[in-house]
Structure formats: structure tokens, C-alpha cells
Amino acid sequence: MCLGSEEFRQELLAQVGELASPKHTGEEIRQSALAKAQRIDQDELGALGWSGQDLQGRRKSDPQKVRIAARLRRETTMTLDWIAACLCMGAATHVASLLQRLNQKGQDSEETLF
């Protein structure tokens, strides 16, 4: 439980995420990881000028979705299931396949993958 505003809570979760090590576990660590992933998602969508409606209307293999998924996978501990649901990309196995293809080709050529 956290006393204070939502902004204060988010700030604390960010600090927990920065200070935690792999041996730390618990609800606060999970919430911190989730908050970080949600921040990345919102930052990326904002940079693209996209909303949730835009995510739903684009292909599951849209290169921008794949780029965001790769960043989430690289910078967070979120599962492929979570990433797939968050970015409207279908099944986790589909996301895994797209990320594997991206890694094989190199991130510079992502526009030509799909």
C-alpha cells in the first residue's frame, strides 16, 4: 500500500525498479516492472501519435509494433503474452517469431521484414 498521489506512487515504483536486483521478488517488484513497461508503451505510442484504436487497426506484424515489442522485451521482464496483448499483436508465438526474424535481419532493416 502506498500513501500519496498516483504520481508519487509511480515515482516510487520507478525507483524500486532501478534499485532492485534479480534476487529481489515480490509484488512491489512486479508492479515496478509493469509500470516501467507501461511507461515505455505510452512513450512509444506518443512518439508515433498513436492511440489504442490505432494499435487495433494496424497489422499484427506492423514494423512499428515489432520495434516497440523488441524494446519492451529488451528493457523489461514482461512476458510475450503481455506484449502481444498490449500491442494487439495476436499470439505470443507470433510475437516471438517476429522478434526472432528482427534479430536475424538486424534492427536497421526492420522496415523490409514485413
Explain this structure.
It is a single chain. With 114 residues, the protein is mainly α. Helix content is 67%, strand content 0%. The longest helix has 22 residues, at 27-48.
List the SSEs and their pairings:
Layout lengths: L5 H14 L7 H22 L3 H6 L5 H13 L4 H7 L5 H14 L9
Features:
mainly alpha, disordered C terminus, globular, 114 residues, 67% helix
Radius of gyration: 15 Å
Please state the overall shape, judged from the principal axes of the Cα atoms.
globular
Tell me, rounded to a whole number, the average pLDDT: 82
Rounded to the nearest angstrom, the distance between the terminal CA atoms is 44 Å
Sheet having the most strands: none
Unreliable stretches (pLDDT < 50, length at least 5) are 110-114
Helix-strand topology string: HHHHHH
How many β-strand stretches? 0
Number of helices: 6
In short:
This protein is an all-alpha fold and 114 residues long. Helix content is 67%, strand content 0%. The model is unreliable at 110-114 (pLDDT under 50).
